[in-house]
Amino acid sequence: MNAHYDVVIVGGAVIGSAVAYYLTANPDFTGSVLVVERDPTYARASTALSSSSIRTQFSNPINVKISQYGSEVIRAFAEMMEVDGDKPDLNFHPGGYLFLARTEDQVQILKDNHAAQTACGADVVLWDRDALADAFPHLRVDDIRLASYGRSGEGWFNNTGLMYGFRNKARAQGATFVTDEVTAIRRDGARVNAVTLASGAVIGAGTVVNASGPRAALTARMAGLDIPVEPRKRTLFVFDCARTPEGSATVNNGRLPLMIDPTGVFCRPEGKFFLSGCPPLEDPAADWDDFEPRYEEFEEIIWPALAERSEGFEAIKVVNQWAGHYAFNTLDHNLVVGAHPEVDNFLFANGFSGHGLQQGPATGRGISELIIYGGFRTLDLTEVGFERIIAGRPFLERAVI
């Protein structure tokens, strides 16, 4: 390991690895890259504990476009990330997302979101109750007034496969990955210039990228900066059905989508099982090391909602559960990508609020462009820059699951 790197990335999960990949893949970048990851098992990384899905059904055009690019990368991933003949397969399942609305407010949100999505070219349709019942006959839809369904560009995939694909390709292209922890960041006025590692090493840095997920605020504070990102716990449950409705759809070759019930409960097929979760009734900041599942959410929130929605979900049994952390942006539930205006070589790639996996490709590309060119060259991410954080000006994303 060198004593100085042109770019030091704090955090080596999907965001940090994507930044490393896009930097080292660009012939206009001739510098050195160090990625510092505290946990090489990634056992508690948001990447590894996520529901591994991608959708274009957002309320903001920039988030739609971010996911459209993510979908392109997923489709081309095996070729893009080939190393020594190994082509990583993300096992993408194009199941789509299905949002259900039963109140006037929910209906209006779906309509507004749909306008933004289709303006970006997203393949999303709005269905009335009859069209919904025809497509997914297992659902009870008497209370549903409108549905929004993604016909393509949405689904789920191998979460760690995406991360390791970026990581392995970045290493093959010259990036250095080290198992260590950044414990201090040295700042001289308007510039950061070095990081100190738990091992005692002091590494000079031309640019520092904060890609530390739910710990983003801890990393920022080392540089004397603040970002409103905190860990919020989300529990996922895998359940078995006595009579599975998978295969009963009249669209998409019988595949069921990732369904978001009006209650906020969601579920999707997961092999022969289903994966499900819900927004918690109370959502305080979690302790950094608290990964204990909220077991009661299944019996109290998820099962009642699903049993009401489908006869196929009346007799179900939990076979696994785990908790992960959202890197939750408390200002506006949206990603923060860009430099701090007062410290222009400290870059944020944080606050994804549960969407980091699908937004990793566009974020990695965008951060690399800022470092190499001093500005965005492909997708303009200025709207989700840090300036709004300082101004306290929310750029809200309404479609948060």
From TrEMBL:
Domain (FAD dependent oxidoreductase): give its ranges.
Answer: 6-370
- Which residue positions does the secretion signal occupy? none
List the GO biological process terms.
mitochondrial respiratory chain complex I assembly
Q: Does the keyword Nucleotidyltransferase apply?
A: no
GO MF, one example: oxidoreductase activity
Q: Which UniProt keywords apply?
A: Oxidoreductase
Q: Which SUPFAM superfamilies match?
A: FAD/NAD(P)-binding domain
PANTHER family named in the record: FAD-DEPENDENT OXIDOREDUCTASE DOMAIN-CONTAINING PROTEIN 1, SARCOSINE DEHYDROGENASE-RELATED
What's the protein called, per UniProt? FAD-dependent oxidoreductase
